[in-house]
Design brief:
Layout lengths: L3 E10 L2 E11 L15 H9 L6 E6 L2 E2 L10 E4 L11 H6 L11 H14 L15 H15 L3 E4 L8 H12 L1
Parallel strand pairs: 5-6
Antiparallel strand pairs: 1-2, 1-3, 3-4
Helix pairs in contact: 3-4
């Protein structure tokens, strides 16, 4: 995990101020939740940390390094979007394995297989590994999206309403797993 700091960060879209002077320090390994009404800037704040949006002002610091100009690939961030963002032509297994097959990772296929199966069991989707993502329920697709973030073991996990499509029991179980 990594330390993340936002110092007086602001972001506007046209005339609409989405984030206004937020200052926030998140310690390595800390688990935090952003709460607020629709339009309060929660998703924009996550997108700023991930590098998917550029701050109009202020500083975004990850592990002591100013990241304002750094792109998403330079931040070692996994982002679970509210919309599932799965590859529809790939199986659940292939969706989970996809980030591990990056040439930069240089992982052995046996290690990829072990990691995919471990994470699939954790998010309780291991019985669907051969299914295409188009054959899954909304809750199953959300679990695959969470698994795809977890499988990478990034420095920062960002999740935008990751548990909203899950039933109450699974939501509670996954909360415990995510805190680990």
């Amino acid at each position: 995990m990594a330390d993340v700091s936002l110092h007086n960060v602001s972001k506007s879209f046209g005339g609409n101020r989405a984030v206004s002077g937020i200052t926030l320090d998140i310690a390595n390994g800390e688990f935090i939740v952003l709460l607020g009404p629709t339009g309060a800037g929660k998703t924009t704040t996550l997108r700023l940390i991930a590098g998917l949006e550029k701050a109009d002002s202020g500083d975004i610091i990850i592990d002591g390094e100013r990241m304002n100009a750094a792109g998403p690939s330079e931040r070692d961030v996994a982002f679970v979007f509210q919309q599932y963002s799965l590859y529809p032509h790939l199986s659940v297994y292939e969706n989970l394995a996809f980030p591990l097959r990056s040439p930069a990772r240089k992982m052995l296929e046996a290690d990829i297989d072990a990691r995919v199966r471990k994470i699939a069991a954790m998010v309780r989707i291991d019985h669907k590994l051969e299914n295409k993502s188009t054959k899954l329920s909304g809750g199953e697709m959300q679990r695959v999206a969470i698994g795809r973030a977890l499988v990478r073991d990034p420095s920062i996990f960002l999740m935008d309403e990751p548990l909203s499509s899950l039933d109450a029991k699974l939501r509670g179980d996954l909360r415990l797993e995510l805190k680990r």
